[in-house]
């Protein structure tokens, strides 16, 4: 299923930060985990988070509208 999500600049930055923090936590958890099945689950999560980060980095940033002080929504 494909969905379109529109975020303003602040929301995009917050989402990007949250995902990168989750990615870092998952990578640290992977290094401290010994159970093979759980390691596989963490690796799947890391791949998914990396895909999301790549999409956020690839999406064009909207031009800010200085007259209203708000940015146009960013489509993902």
Labels describing this entry:
single chain, 76 residues, mainly alpha, two-stranded antiparallel sheet, 2 helices, 62% helix, elongated
Account of the 3D structure:
- It is a single chain.
- The chain is mainly α and 76 residues long.
- It has a domain at 8-59.
- It has helices at 9-32, 36-58, and strands at 6-7, 64-65, 70-71, 74-75.
- The strands form two sheets. It has a two-stranded antiparallel sheet.
- Helix 1 runs antiparallel to helix 2 (36-58).
- The two termini are 14 Å apart.
Radius of gyration: 16 Å
State the share of residues found in helices, binned by percent.
55-70%
Strand fraction equals: 5-15%
- Count of DSSP-assigned helices: 2
Envelope shape:
elongated
Number of strands: 4
Task: Give the N-terminus to C-terminus distance in angstroms.
Answer: 14 Å
Mean pLDDT: 84
Can you list the strand order of the major beta sheet?
A: 1-4
Q: Structural class, judged by helices and strands?
A: mainly alpha
- Order of SSEs: EHHEEE
Low-confidence stretches: 64-69
Largest sheet: 2 strands, antiparallel
